[in-house]
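ok, trying the design again with the full structure, not the truncated one.
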């Protein structure tokens, strides 16, 4: 018996976004590339975008992302502030509380695991 694997392909220029819901409330827009793991644990990947805003966010899993557009300031509770713009890649640990300030319309490619 052979295993069948699905290959997910997308493009950063996609216009196929849907509302991203957090506790039933729209929170930016998402284009899902992947919403499940082929093994143990969780794995999510895709594009996420949001207009200018300030909000609190607790990382639901280990999250690594690549900034594609916009600028953002992320302050970790009790810690440092990271300034990010196009081309920057960053990684945060599951459970870190943070405050995000999006200074210009923002788009990222993200991977969340764990």
């Amino acid at each position: 018996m052979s295993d069948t694997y699905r290959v997910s392909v997308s493009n950063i220029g996609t216009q196929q976004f849907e509302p991203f819901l957090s506790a039933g409330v729209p929170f930016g827009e998402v284009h899902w590339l992947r919403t499940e793991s082929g093994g143990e644990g969780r794995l999510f990947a895709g594009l996420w975008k949001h207009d200018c805003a300030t909000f609190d966010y607790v990382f639901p899993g280990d999250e690594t992302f690549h900034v594609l557009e916009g600028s953002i300031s992320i302050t970790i509770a009790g810690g440092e502030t990271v300034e990010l713009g196009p081309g920057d890649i960053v990684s945060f640990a599951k459970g870190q509380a943070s405050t995000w300030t999006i200074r210009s319309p923002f788009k990222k490619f993200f991977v969340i695991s764990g």
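Keeping the full-length input from now on. The beta strands are 18-22, 25-34, 43-50, 53-58, 62-76, 81-84, 89-92, 97-113.
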